[in-house]
Write a structure and sequence with these properties.
Helices cover 30% and strands 24% of the residues. By secondary structure, it is α+β, with helices and mostly antiparallel strands. It has two domains: 234 residues, Glutamine Phosphoribosylpyrophosphate, subunit 1, domain 1; 183 residues, Rossmann fold (3-Layer(aba) Sandwich). The strands form six sheets. Strands 3-2-4-1-10-9-11 form a seven-stranded antiparallel β-sheet. A six-stranded antiparallel β-sheet has the order 5-6-7-8-12-13. Helix 10 packs parallel to helix 12. It is globular, with a radius of gyration of 22 Å. The chain starts with a strand and ends with a helix. About 1% of the residues have low confidence. It binds iron/sulfur cluster. Iron/sulfur cluster binds next to helix 15.
């Protein structure tokens, strides 16, 4: 089964400006959300899709912006939580006159596919996005309106979804799931009289648009010749914003739910310094790149020097990529090889390493090994995200419990015992995880408004009791 967590964008210019160059810039600013493939779609044309980074196609940009000249566009950057990184799985996808780009995961895709007449879904060859699009097209034809169709679809569909759509009548739509698992913002560029919706505000900044607001969970926005129209296809009382966006996934320059990500991460570091005041540390170093603001906050709070003891080799093949979202284990190992310790900073010191998360433990193990080789006297590791104990069914790639560093193989263990097990496994002298209360307090969003399912195992916000599957089972192998 192919599932996505990705970045999406939708742009409509009321002045008739060709917004395809803007979409390309916006997708580049969302590249951290997916590096496997990207694509754009304009009305009455097949979507354009490419594998790899957006910048890898820079020699084609001129041709693309001429051939795909349009005042309305949607776009997508992809990382798969499942399946192959093939061009056919890249987005946007087209079903009849509707093109769709999706950030999230439809957890009950098998069930949903039964509602799609003639749908050719099998786990191996199709995606949750395609099934949702096929069902949506049917519902639109039956009900006439996107809003009505979505209000039916949201009752049939379990999962997280931020969609952008474009239709042959040139309208652009954006919809955010009723719980607001994944982020989505609305912006406006005055000079071009252009509206833009995107997964993150970093995309708005990249095209010179001003952030107007977050798209409300359960909101459908339509951008067309008539301007901006909005309606609610769902009215939920509670939200479940993904807390992992705040420590790892989102761009530090972005603002979501009114909170800047860089500032939030720095505050998380400050709060962690109070939770784990390792006062005999000689220096605090971040694991590049997402943990840098938290490490700075931690160091400043305790008055311990902050330094860069680990640097990414930006000129290696994998250096600029992010290890967690790389789909293949061999690629993750290769990335870690290109994080280089600086002996002159590390040697003979008690190093406090701050990292944004500990998922499989692969990176942490490799980093601690490298720090030991560089002569660290003692290594304490502080993780800005709580223990990840359960898979995510709302769009982030923790597909199998067995793959998690915290996997206990059925043995009853307390959280402290799990921390100790992981500490020994990665080889640190001390390991401290954040907790949900501290993370939420540092970000400044009530804990109950955020999702912590991968830590707590409480899947109530999704409304499911998942059967945990292996990666192979989820891939349909
Ligand atoms: S389960 Fe974890 S990663 Fe998934 S949406 Fe919730 S907080 Fe985010």
């Amino acid at each position: 089964m192919v599932k996505e967590n990705c970045g999406v964008v939708g742009i409509f210019s009321l002045s008739g400006t060709n917004v395809v160059p803007m979409a390309i810039d916006a997708l580049r600013a969302l590249q951290h959300r997916g590096q496997e493939a990207w694509g754009i779609a304009i009305p009455k044309k097949e979507p354009l899709k490419r594998l790899g980074l957006v910048s890898a196609a820079s020699s084609e940009f001129k041709k693309i912006t001429e051939e795909y000249c349009s005042p309305s566009v949607i776009g997508h950057v992809r990382y798969s939580t499942m399946g192959r990184s093939s061009l056919e799985n890249a987005q946007p996808l087209k079903v009849k006159d509707l093109c769709i780009a999706h950030n999230g995961t439809i957890a009950n895709v098998q069930e949903l596919s039964n509602l799609v007449g003639g749908c050719s879904f099998t786990p191996q060859n199709s995606s949750d996005t395609l099934v949702a699009a096929q069902r949506l097209v049917t519902l639109i034809s039956e009900n006439g309106q996107m809003g009505k169709a979505l209000s039916i679809l949201k009752n049939e569909m379990i999962g997280s979804y931020c969609f952008t759509f474009i239709t042959d009548d040139e309208s652009v739509y954006a919809a955010r799931d009723p719980k607001g698992f994944r982020p989505m913002v609305l912006g406006y560029k005055k000079s071009d009289n252009t509206y833009i919706v995107a997964s993150e505000s970093s995309a708005l900044s990249a095209v010179g648009a001003e952030l107007q607001r977050d798209v409300t969970p359960g909101e459908l926005i339509k951008l067309s010749k008539d301007g901006l129209e909005t309606e609610r296809f769902s009215k939920e009382n509670s939200t479940a914003h993904c807390s992992f966006e705040f420590t790892y996934f989102a761009h530090p320059a972005s603002k979501m739910e009114g909170k800047n990500i860089y500032v939030s991460r720095k505050r998380i570091g400050q709060f962690l310094a109070k939770k784990f005041p390792i006062k005999d540390g000689d220096l605090v170093i971040p694991v590049p790149d997402s943990a840098r603001p938290a490490a700075l906050g931690y160091a400043q709070e305790l008055g311990i020097p902050f330094d860069e003891g680990l640097l990414k080799d930006r000129y290696s093949k994998k250096g600029p990529l992010r290890s967690f979202i790389e789909p293949h284990q061999t690629d993750r190992v290769e990335i870690n090889r290109w994080i280089i310790p600086i002996r002159e900073i590390i040697e003979g010191r008690h190093v406090i390493v701050v990292d944004d998360s500990l998922v499989r433990g692969t990176s942490s193990k490799a980093i601690i090994k490298a720090l030991k080789r560089a002569g660290a006297k003692k290594i304490s590791m502080v993780i800005t995200y709580p223990q990840i104990n359960f898979p995510c069914y709302a769009g982030i790639d923790f597909p199998s419990q067995k793959e998690l560093a915290t996997f206990t193989n059925g043995k009853e263990m307390t959280s402290e015992e799990i921390t100790e097990m992981v500490r020994r496994d990665i080889g640190a002298d001390f390991l401290g995880y954040n907790d949900a209360e501290t993370l939420a307090a540092a970000v400044g969003i009530p804990k109950d408004s955020m999702c912590f399912t991968c830590s707590s195992g409480n899947y109530d916000s999704l409304g499911i009791t998942p059967e945990f599957k292996t990666r192979a089972e989820m891939k349909g192998e």
